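note to self — DONT lose this again. spent like an hour looking for the file last time. sequence + predicted structure for the chain T wanted, 503 res
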Amino acid sequence: MNASSVLPANESIYEVVYDYLRAIADEPSSNRKIEMLKEAEQHVSLSHFQQVLIWANHPQIRFYLTPPAYLFKEVQDTQDIPVFTEAKDMADFLQALSNRSISGNAAKHAYQQFRGTLTPKVQTLLDDILEKDLKVGFGVSSINKAFKKLIPDVPYMRCSLITDIKKPELWLSPASGVISQEKMDGMFFNIDVMGDGDIVLTSRNGSLFPAHSAFYEIKSVVANFRPAMQYHGEMLVTDKIGKILPREESNGLLNALLKSDNSKSKGARFDTNQYSLLLQLWDAIPHALLHLVGDNKAIEQSEHNLPYSERLASLASDIQRADSKVVQLVDTRYYSSIADAEEHFKQMLSEGKEGCVVKLPEMKWKDGTSREQVKLKNKFTVELRIVGFNEGTGKNKDLFGSLNCISEDGLLEVNVSSSGMSETYRKHVSDERNKYMGQVVSVTANSIMHNKNGGRHSLFLPVFEEIRSDKHIADTFQRICEQFDNSVNLQQQIELLKASKKS
């Protein structure tokens, strides 16, 4: 490929886009970032700017190549790899990656060639797009506030709460019983087995996990699974003796991996001599079904949408056939009703675990909240968005003392102490405030403090749990109230279900 064939005109457009993104990244205020997004057409080509946002954030656009590919050692002998000459601009090259007209070593070789024709700014922009991370301090929520529905949500089936149950008879005396599974305390992920055998791992918000050596064993195991399938589960980190690490430590290491660019300076926290990955799976969805996302009627009627009991049986068969300790089926029990499943819930709590998820065997997959799977969770945990840093005092005078956080709808605001962070992590977040501004954080609390005077509500005794790099949408106030109600008294709620059934 020669330089004259690659976007001589468009390159300047992407340089302007890069510069404007950097200007937004340098703005500390999340509200001002949104304003700058809305003002983009005054400074850049809006179509190119929005296209870059789509490339980097759309959950169903994937490029199957994690930079920096120029460091990939396997691309050495390129004599038998055809030269990729079809790209007239950035869009052509990314389209070729996305539709997999080039893949494997051919894609890596083409990337090396294409990238070498670009200016340093456009090179960086290309790498950020391929990493699905523009490093600008705003996410999908801010983009969609500026440009309505520009980026769709990642397809995901959420749990209901026990307080959401409308038909208690389906849960208290179901003909086929219920399935109870341990609620894992790790990082949710999707793992796609492509039709051509490629393995792709993505986080809850669609971010692509990089080509790090930590994933080699997992990918080799999953390569034996059924093709054209997406597997759902949680990723955990174990130490060298096989013990699962606490969530904060585990997800901290996973977030480092997620943001790794294969360089020695990033992702180095995950030492494969010290840590290993463990996948706990609970569902397997055909790609043909995922292509129907957005059309709920088509999803419901799809021949690919099997009952959960059948999906679970096929998944268990996949895992058994692979015969590996690094990929497991989540702890699964069978009970006659949700009341009997309380036994499993209490056992989980006694072991210091989060709780369990109870599912109806006939449950079909859907994109959204399912009324056929219920989360039993004693911990009152919510997801809030960071909107500010409050300065620390005393020994923390050079750091921040607390995080100013709000709900997604702005109806709840609370200062969350940084006491749950290690000193090293607090310093890291302090030094990278612009990076973490606008991100979602997990917070536990004892109760909700309702403001009856029309102001914002708050939380009683909020405790920082972790930064959720895998999420881009916080909880609304209504959802926070539901989470609290669900945690108050599980037994009482089950008794209410029994009473409602009798009446």
